[in-house]
């Protein structure tokens, strides 16, 4: 299983070249078409030995378990003036970045949260792994104002999350049998899934409002209204 997706720009033109293909698993050209890189995603699988030239070396110190997804862009761009690039990321490329991320999240059971889907510029901020002079995407590629890679990443992740829907938060390969019994006081990703399904604020904390929503759901479905989410309630929720 792969642990994360790292978003990049190649620093080149809108069309991938051989160097780019060797460095990333998937590359998106200026028209939004997706190209496979030289190395299979599995070449970077956790536990696989990383031999130079035989895996996609896209994120220093963090290649194991990381899928490298790049937009072919930013040749000639400099941090002080990203728009100096004659190959600035196109809207089609960013749309394709979102769709490809959605597909990879589904295929590998990756959740679109900061620690697991992030731009290269976010890596040191979120994961504490130092990168030298990497600023993909520390510039406005959608609507987020300013040059805050986390805000820009959050905006892209929100799009991915919307496209994935509620089910996105489940690790895809997690057997249903492992879904935890939740009651008031619980917290975490499973609570967020529950809250989304119940259409209450998904802060990941099972408080009185979530409990009230569970109770009314259980009553509506003629289940035992105990406010506890076990296998029967999960199943009734379609999860
Ligand atoms: Zn990069």
Automatic annotation (TrEMBL):
InterPro entries: Amidase/PGRP_sf, Amidase_domain, Peptidoglycan-bd-like, PGBD-like_sf, PGBDSf. GO terms for biological process: peptidoglycan catabolic process. Residues 3-124 form the N-acetylmuramoyl-L-alanine amidase domain. Gene3D superfamilies: Peptidoglycan recognition protein-like (3.40.80.10), PGBD-like superfamily/PGBD (1.10.101.10). It comes from the Bacteria. SUPFAM superfamilies: N-acetylmuramoyl-L-alanine amidase-like, PGBD-like. Residues 200-237 form the Peptidoglycan binding-like domain. GO terms for molecular function: N-acetylmuramoyl-L-alanine amidase activity. Pfam families: Amidase_2 (PF01510), PG_binding_1 (PF01471). This is N-acetylmuramoyl-L-alanine amidase. The lineage of its organism: Bacteria, Pseudomonadati, Pseudomonadota, Alphaproteobacteria, Rhodobacterales.
């Amino acid at each position: 299983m792969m642990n994360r997706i790292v978003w990049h720009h190649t620093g080149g033109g809108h069309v991938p070249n051989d160097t780019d293909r060797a460095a990333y698993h998937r590359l998106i050209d200026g028209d939004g078409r997706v190209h496979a890189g030289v190395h299979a995603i599995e070449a970077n699988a956790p536990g696989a030995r990383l031999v130079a030239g035989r895996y996609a070396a896209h994120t220093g110190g963090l290649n194991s378990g990381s899928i490298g997804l790049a937009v072919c862009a930013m040749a000639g761009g400099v941090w002080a003036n990203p728009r100096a690039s004659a190959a600035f990321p196109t809207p089609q490329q960013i749309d394709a970045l979102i769709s490809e991320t959605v597909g990879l999240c589904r295929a590998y059971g990756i959740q679109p949260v900061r620690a697991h889907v992030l731009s290269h510029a976010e890596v040191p901020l979120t994961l504490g792994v130092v990168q030298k002079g990497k600023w993909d995407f520390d510039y406005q590629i959608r609507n987020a104002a300013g040059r805050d890679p986390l805000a820009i990443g959050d905006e892209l992740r929100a799009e991915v999350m919307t496209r994935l829907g509620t089910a996105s938060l489940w690790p895809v390969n997690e057997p249903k049998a492992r879904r935890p019994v939740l009651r008031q006081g619980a917290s975490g990703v499973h609570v967020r899934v529950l809250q989304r399904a119940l259409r209450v604020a998904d802060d990941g904390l099972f408080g009185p409002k979530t409990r009230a929503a569970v109770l009314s759901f259980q009553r509506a479905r003629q289940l035992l209204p105990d406010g506890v989410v076990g296998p029967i309630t999960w199943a009734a929720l379609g999860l």
